[in-house]
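re the bet — no i am not wrong, look at it urself. input seq straight from the record:
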Amino acid sequence: MSVETARAVLQDIAQYADEVGLGSVSIVFHGGEPMLFPASAYRELLKLIDSELTSVGVTANLSIQTNATILRKETLSALLDAQVGFGVSADLSDASHDSHRVDKMGRGSMARVRLGISAIRDASANSEPQGGLFVIDPSVEPKAALERIESLGFPFVDVLLPDENWDSADEAELAATYGPWLLELFDLYVSTPRTFQIRWFQTVFKLALGGVWGSDSLGLRSAGTLIVETDGRYVLHDVLRTASYEVNSTNRVAGQREISEIAELPGMRAMMDKGSFLHSRCAGCDNLSLCGGGHIAHRYSTDHGLDNPSVYCSALMPLYERVRDLTRTGA
C-alpha cells in the first residue's frame, strides 16, 4: 500500500469518526503477510496515523496479525515502539501446521514460527504476543489442541472454522465432523485449568448471560469491520472473498469519504445489525441471540446469495445449547 493510499484511508476514517462521533477505532495490519511491509513504510504509516487521527482526537488501537516467520528487527522495533499488539497465526499441532503452511520449497514453517514468537517476546521485554489464531483441524484431538495452545503461551486466542459455504460443503458432513469436536473442546475448556481464554467461547458466555455485542460470527449486534485492499478498494470482509468477490465488493475506494455510505450497504448491515437480514430458518431459533445467523461468509450460496443460514448451523447448535444449559444452571 502506498503512502498516498494510506493517507486517503486515514482521512476517510477521520471524517467518518467525526460524522458519527467515534472516539476510537481499531486498525489491524493484516495480509497476506504484513511483516513484509518495510520498516521505513511502517514508520511513515505510524506518523500518518498520528497526524490524521490522533491529532483530531481519534484514538487508534493498533495490532498486527502475522505468521511470525519474517520478523526483521527494525520492523519489529518500529511496531513495538508504537505499542502495536501482535497476534500470531498458527495451527493446532506441528504436523497440521507444517502440512498447511509451507515455504516455497514445500517445507513446514512451525519451527520458524516458534523462533518468531521468541523474537517478539525478546524484543518486547518478554511480554506475550497479544494473541493467537488457530484454524480448526478436526484430525487434532481437542485435548491435544488445548495443550498445544497452552504450550505457546498466548493469553488470548481464537479458533476458527475453515471457510466453507453452501457451494463448497455439505451441512450434514460438517455437522458430523465439527459438531462433536467443538463440543468436546468446549467441555474440556470449561473443566480444565488453563492460562488462556478462547474469544469464541467467552463471547458466547457473555451473550448467554444477556450481553448485546457479539462479533462478525456471533450475536445479533457487532461493530463494523471494513477491509482495505492494497490498492485502496474497500471490501466488506476478508473471509467473504472465499465465497464471492462480487458480494464482497463495496464499489468504493479510499479518498472518496464514503465510509458512512458503506456502513449502510446491505452486506455491512447484515454483519452489524443482523436481525433484519436473517434467513427464515433462523428467525425462531432458540440459539439466535448467540449465533446471530452465523458468519456471513458461511451463509453464501450462488443461488441465494447471503439469504441462507450458516452451512455450519447443525455443527454449532449442540455447542450453543450446552452454553445455554450451563448458564441456566449457574455452572
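see?? The beta strands are 24-29, 59-66, 85-91, 131-135, 156-160, 197-198, 227-228, 233-235, 249-253. told u. also The radius of gyration is 20 Å. so pay up
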